[in-house]
Design goal:
Blueprint: E1 4-7, E2 12-16, H1 27-33, E3 38-42, H2 59-73, E4 79-84, H3 86-97, E5 102-108, H4 117-133, H5 135-144, H6 149-152, H7 156-166, H8 171-182, H9 189-193, E6 197-202, H10 210-219, E7 226-229, H11 236-239, H12 241-259
Parallel strand pairs: 2-3, 2-4, 4-5, 5-6, 6-7
Antiparallel strand pairs: 1-3
Length: about 260
């Protein structure tokens, strides 16, 4: 069973957090969005208060569970989905697998490209590290690298918030997600197809290279829906809160106008 939080009314907007995070990631953004939209924040399987998946799984398995929860339990047939990092991978899978249900798609500090061989090797080493040293030790270095060096002192409270989201996770939950991310397919074709695709990148993101961000922006069917935030790493919701909020509000307004004819 997946834990979710539903607030507001109107066009449904599903928010999916990233790796070793939970739905509280979106708290500040939700306060604004719920004034105009029905906002659904969900803990991905195994994170936050959601039940884990037994055994190994794929990003597609995660997407299937989420879609079932949204359509059957929450009774929402069509929705906008916005995902951060890992949540972006799941959002892409949802758009690929259930195109009739997805009204619009947003990637925040994520990528539609599959892992390179170099990235796959890094993920394999990370699995070995976690199995040897545990999740808490892994997150000590991982979380700080999500933020730019210039933001780490200023946003120390936010860094601790993110650290605490994942510090007590079981090793196997984290390593299974690492393998699922490693093996996900390329879904960059979706950027070319959709009229409603928001892409947000951070110029100093250590997890999504600037060259990959630029390549994806060039693929967007509607270029104005692609933005790069300066002096931002992997955590736009904390490092560029107002800019992200404005970008999402503008994007959702354009989707709403289209839906209303």
């Amino acid at each position: 069973m997946l834990n979710s939080k539903v607030t507001g009314t109107g066009l449904p907007v599903v928010l999916l957090h990233g790796f070793c995070e939970d739905l509280s990631l979106w708290e500040n953004l939700t306060e604004n969005l719920k004034l105009h939209y029905k906002v659904i924040s969900i803990d991905l399987p195994g994170f936050g208060k959601s039940d884990p998946i037994d055994g190994d799984f794929t990003i597609e398995n995660v997407a299937s569970i989420l879609h079932d929860t949204i359509t059957n339990e929450l009774q929402i047939d069509k929705y906008i989905v916005i995902g951060h990092s890992l949540g972006g991978y799941v959002s892409l899978a949802l758009a690929d697998m259930y195109p009739r249900s997805i009204l619009a798609l947003g990637l925040i500090n994520s990528t539609s490209f599959a892992d390179s061989e170099e990235k796959k090797a890094i993920r394999n080493k990370t699995v070995e590290f976690i199995n040897k040293h545990g999740v808490a030790k892994f997150l000590e270095g991982f979380v700080s690298n999500l933020f730019t060096p210039s933001n780490q002192k200023v946003l120390s409270k936010e860094m601790n918030k993110v650290l605490n989201m994942g510090i007590n996770l079981p090793n196997n939950t984290v390593t299974r997600y690492m393998k699922a991310m490693r093996d996900r397919p390329d879904r960059s074709f979706l950027l070319k197809q959709s009229n409603h695709f928001l892409f947000i990148g951070g110029r100093e993101d250590q997890h999504v290279s600037f060259s990959d961000i630029e390549k994806q922006l060039s693929l967007l069917k509607i270029p104005k829906n692609g933005l790069i935030f300066d002096k931002v790493g992997h955590m736009s919701m904390f490092e560029a809160t107002n800019a992200l909020q404005n970008a999402i509000n503008s994007f959702l307004l354009s989707v709403k106008k289209m839906e209303n004819g």
